[in-house]
DNA sequence: GAGTTTGAAACT
DNA sequence: CAGTTTCAAACTC
């Protein structure tokens, strides 16, 4: 009478089935035969019954699929569900014991609690076998540890529903009919299934008793973590934190798969065993007819432990099993961090997690929003800006090379990033930020460090804009040659002991690493006190010393990500003081940061393309598109193709501008913003509507008398073609810095509020009209 | 790789 | 705050 897959082995975290309890040598068999059920349920309609066992002391042999993970996963309860009559010693023995010793079991100390919760009655009558199905369906849903997320509800396949309905109606349908029925509806979405199931369940008026039982059973089962089980604690590290693992059965079968997988599924337990013995026919009877339990197990309704199944599939050559893996999703939660399943009704379009997906990858991939770095902000210093950029793009890749391992300097001090959006500051888990500095979670710090191990890759070139790492030439070249722009920032300090802002590592709030070429370095964790003290001293002199050198104009956020990425929307916090470089070399921090010079700059002969001279360059490009536009494009290190792909390398020098091979501006400007796109980022545009601020730098002169025309064009462009989001007051009335014909910058009277903000004071917007 | 240039940081 | 020095990265050869 007992069928293997009808033995639900309940753990504190879920349910599973271990193996065929009907096998004489089965540990389940042997164990169950020694127990008395704490509760026996009789199905009035079929004269069948099933038993609820409580394992006060779970046998070592009975372990769940999670058994390799945690002792907590040991089976604590079992439910034997009835099926087709079958001579079975176990059944007989259990029934004998049930009749004779049930009371004793109820009175036992071991079972007192559970029995008490369960109720006084030793038996419960259940009217229909369909209701028995609901037990299978509802049990996991009722499990304590499965609560809380919509995914944790078992999905009931159409096949199950169909079968259930069929049985409720008291009719028998053939397997072929079932298959047909299932196939017919197989393309239904998971949501519909869920919703329909719920509706159906609600509409079923005949299951009051059964639901009561479920509730009671749920209570019993969910309280299955009594103090008695404390000895089981100490989860294994290898485990996927079984503490909150939950299973979700789902149906991910495509119609095409059905026939092929049906056979397999018919032999597949409702819940996989840990050894993935999916192919082992458990239905020893070989019954041609598929009864309801078969369909459940065949089911198209299987709970899968993701990792195991995934790994299983990775090594499995059998197409069937691959299909099975493809059809199934797993959902498991991890204490606090929820591993989200990828429930998908279309397994083909959305295949499950890659076989090689690790838990971490799973987490990263499936929980992008939960990633603590996902909302990192423009960080602190160059490195952290890079972090922010990386995190922003959700390309947080843990590059755990030894050379890149870097530990952030944990300082009790906080920067007052006046220009950082508060939300960013909140979410930014930098040690420089108190949220993490004050945290005792070293793990968090480590993760932060891991997430930003390659801060140097991006310098401060805005979001997604990368400059070559500012490491020693040798290394830089090596890295460049290798095509790896993810190199780490390394300093080469000789005299500063890496305790001054000269040191890039220190300035970025990072400890030096072994790969640094510094000498007498004190910027290491072992000198933490010294480092922190030095930091305090520096911050006492300049509270913003460790603030990002390039700050973003967060107010542009309302225009979307693109504007946020606009290089011109960011400014160097202090401005440069270049004299000879023309702000065209990386000596210039503005240039290095990929931002235009601003009011706060005191540079001479500024030719920063992101600054006013950029307009002249662009103008030149208009006049001589075959040449100048090339320069413009190449200056940004962006070819036509590159424009569409971010992360290009900026020019090393203006010399390269002349040497660069680029395409005509006309081509490179295909998108409206393209000529000044910086890695696809739209710069801001000057507007005559609001007189640009007076330019303090005398060299910031526009020599081209026709520039006004250009600006006029630009203005028109902004009015005519600017996306709506750019047409707001922000665009035309914000502080706009631009080169005016008289070489003076005029502050807009309308940008009062913005000018009070250091971040906005230097903002400008360049909007270019596309040239036909 | 050595030397030079450059500009920020540090110092006075 | 300005001038000077120190420093290390960027750059050139």
From TrEMBL:
InterPro entries associated with the record: CRC, Tesmin/TSO1-like_CXC, TSO1-like
Pfam families recorded: TCR (PF03638)
GO molecular function annotations of the record: DNA-binding transcription factor activity
Subcellular location: Nucleus
Coiled-coil residue windows: none
Residue stretches making up the CRC domain: 487-611
Segments for region (Disordered): 145-168, 460-488, 640-664
GO-annotated cellular components: nucleus
Family as reported in the entry's similarity comment: Belongs to the lin-54 family.
Protein name per Swiss-Prot or TrEMBL: CRC domain-containing protein
Source species of the chain: Carnegiea gigantea
């Amino acid at each position: 009478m007992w069928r293997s897959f009808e033995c639900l082995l309940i753990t504190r975290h879920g349910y599973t089935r271990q193996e065929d309890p009907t096998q004489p040598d089965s540990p389940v068999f042997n164990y169950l035969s020694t127990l008395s059920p704490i509760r026996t349920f009789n199905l009035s309609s079929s004269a069948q019954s099933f038993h609820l066992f409580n394992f006060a002391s779970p046998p070592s042999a009975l372990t769940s699929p999670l058994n390799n993970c945690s002792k907590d996963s040991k089976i604590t309860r079992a439910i034997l569900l009835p099926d087709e009559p079958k001579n079975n010693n176990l059944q007989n023995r259990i029934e004998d014991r049930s009749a004779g010793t049930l009371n004793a079991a109820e009175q036992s100390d071991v079972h007192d609690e559970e029995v008490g919760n369960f109720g006084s009655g030793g038996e419960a009558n259940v009217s229909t076998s369909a209701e028995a199905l609901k037990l299978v369906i509802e049990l996991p849903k009722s499990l304590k540890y499965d609560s809380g997320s919509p995914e944790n509800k078992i999905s009931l396949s159409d096949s199950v529903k169909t079968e259930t309905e069929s049985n409720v109606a008291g009719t028998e349908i053939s397997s072929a009919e079932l298959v047909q029925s299932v196939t017919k509806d197989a393309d239904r979405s998971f949501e519909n299934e869920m919703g329909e199931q719920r509706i159906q369940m609600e509409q079923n008026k005949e299951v009051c008793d059964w639901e009561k039982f479920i509730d009671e059973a749920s209570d019993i089962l969910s309280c299955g973590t009594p103090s008695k089980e404390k000895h089981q604690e100490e989860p294994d590290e290898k485990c996927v934190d079984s503490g909150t693992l939950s299973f979700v059965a789902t149906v991910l079968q495509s119609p095409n798969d059905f026939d092929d997988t049906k056979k397999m599924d018919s032999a597949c337990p409702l819940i996989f065993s840990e050894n993935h013995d999916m192919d082992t026919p458990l239905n020893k009877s070989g019954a041609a007819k598929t009864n309801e339990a078969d369909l459940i197990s065949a089911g198209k309704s299987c709970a899968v432990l993701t990792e195991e199944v995934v790994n299983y599939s990775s090594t499995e050559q059998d197409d069937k099993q691959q299909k099975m893996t493809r059809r199934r999703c797993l959902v498991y939660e991890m204490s606090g961090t929820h591993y989200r399943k990828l429930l998908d009704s279309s397994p083909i379009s959305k295949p499950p997690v890659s076989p090689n997906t690790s838990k971490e990858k799973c987490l990263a991939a499936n929980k992008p929003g939960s990633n603590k770095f996902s909302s990192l902000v423009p960080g602190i210093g160059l490195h952290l800006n890079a972090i922010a950029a990386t995190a922003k793009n959700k390309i947080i890749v843990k590059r755990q090379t030894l050379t890149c391992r870097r530990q952030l300097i944990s300082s009790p001090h906080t920067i007052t990033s006046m220009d950082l959006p508060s939300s960013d500051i909140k979410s930014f888990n930098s040690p420089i930020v108190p949220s993490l500095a004050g945290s005792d979670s070293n793990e968090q710090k480590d993760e932060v460090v891991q997430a930003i191990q390659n801060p140097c890759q991006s310098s401060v070139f805005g979001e997604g804009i990368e400059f070559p790492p500012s490491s020693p030439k040798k290394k830089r070249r090596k890295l460049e040659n290798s095509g790896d722009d993810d190199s780490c920032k390394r300093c080469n300090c000789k005299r500063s002991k890496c305790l001054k802002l000269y040191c890039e590592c220190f300035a970025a709030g990072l400890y030096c690493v072994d790969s640094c070429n510094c000498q007498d370095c004190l910027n290491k964790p072992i000198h933490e006190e010294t480092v922190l003290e030095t930091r305090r001293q520096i911050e006492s002199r300049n509270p913003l010393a460790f603030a990002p050198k390039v700050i973003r104009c967060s107010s542009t956020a309302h225009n979307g990500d693109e504007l946020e990425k606009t290089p011109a929307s960011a400014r160097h916090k202090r401005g440069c003081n270049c004299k000879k470089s023309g702000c065209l070399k990386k000596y210039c921090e503005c240039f290095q940061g990929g931002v235009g010079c601003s009011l706060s700059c005191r540079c001479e002969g500024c030719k920063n393309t992101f600054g006013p001279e950029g307009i002249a360059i662009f103008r030149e490009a208009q006049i001589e598109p075959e040449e100048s536009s090339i320069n413009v494009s190449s200056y940004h290190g962006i070819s036509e193709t590159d424009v569409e792909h971010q992360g290009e390398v900026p020019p090393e020098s203006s010399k390269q501008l002349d040497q660069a091979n680029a395409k005509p501006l006309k081509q490179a400007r295909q998108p409206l913003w393209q000529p000044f796109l910086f890695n696809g980022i739209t710069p801001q545009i000057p507007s005559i509507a609001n007189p640009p601020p007076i330019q303090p730098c005398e060299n910031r002169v526009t020599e081209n008398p026709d520039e006004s025309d250009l600006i006029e064009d630009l203005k028109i462009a902004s009015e005519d073609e600017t996306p709506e989001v750019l047409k707001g007051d922000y665009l035309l009335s914000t502080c706009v810095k631009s080169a005016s014909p008289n070489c003076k910058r005029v502050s807009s009277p309308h940008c009062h509020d913005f000018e009070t903000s250091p971040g906005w004071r230097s903002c400008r917007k360049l909007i270019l009209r596309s040239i036909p």
